[in-house]
Amino acid sequence: MSVTTSRKAQHIAAALDPAVVRRSGPGWPEIELFHEALPELDAEEVELSTDLLGWRLGAPLVVAGMTGGYDGATEINARLARAAERHGLAIGVGSQRTVLDDPSTTASYAVVRECAPTAPVIGNIGASQLIAQGDRPAVTPDDLRSLVDMVHADALAIHLNFLEEAVQPEGDSRTRGCAAAIARAVDALDVPVIVKETGAGMSRSTAARLRDLGVAALDVGGAGGTSFAIIERLRAEQQGDLPQVALGHVLGEWGIPTAAAVAASAGLGLPVIATGGVRSGLDAAKALVLGADVVGVARPLLLAALEGDDAVDTWITQFCLALRTVLLLTGAGSPAALKDKPYVAHGAIRDWLQTLGAVPR
Length: 361
Known about the structure:
The chain is of the alpha/beta class. Helix content is 44%, strand content 13%. The strands form 3 sheets. An 8-stranded parallel β-barrel has the order 4-5-6-7-8-9-10-11, surrounded by 7 helices. Helix 12 (281-289) packs across helix 14. Belongs to the IPP isomerase type 2 family.
């Protein structure tokens, strides 16, 4: 088993530990929506379907890329993919870096397209892999195209996980040149490129830079859900790497809360995916009112997938029921209509929004 394959299995095991969830949260409790007491809208008129990158989704929900690259990932990805197909959702795969090191892991990724023949599928590679790291060369345009072909992807996500890499005992340390490499990837591929953070959020200046590099959409990956700094701290503890353990303690809560990252990235002309601590349809509604187009969900669906197909369906159904009900109670007939609805922000999130110049309506 390669180092990257082993690490994938360790990540999933660690993600099941409640301790990896950021204590300070994504900011949803500090956003309040206005109740419309006279909505003049029948519940059956509320429409959840949403457009993203030319795809028509059954709800504003992306099954976030989580795993792949080890034996246990195949059935997890199959269950998530079957649910995406049934509910008309987009689905991402976990980082495909592993398959470049170990082609025998291909099936754990390819199963997503096999089980979701019509759903939008998003491939995945890290920005760190786009540049040389020590003795390891950068992935080539042909490598990127092979990753897309592997899962018949409709888009490729390039993830920014420099916080994780910094805490990871064997993490990549080079970052210079990643922006130019992202621009080259955009030019080299025939599918849209989504750039996604992985739990530390995205500032407005970074979002604007990525727009100017030609990316098609932004996944803010805000702080508030699973902290990969904590996951890597737990791995460092297992390895007895005390300096990395200490770093993980210091940076476990690092990042821009998801609510603030959404507001920061909205209004730049790119679709915004709000990932990071979305746990319900109410959370999703708050992300949408702040400017997100859709939300991404990882850990709750991972936990459901470990139980089985029925548990995944139950979670998605409950999510959609809550979101539909919130749309009704705000007088919004669709997810897009929430962008015009008023909201109140308080606490730390209000401070973030004021600093961003995003004054609550």
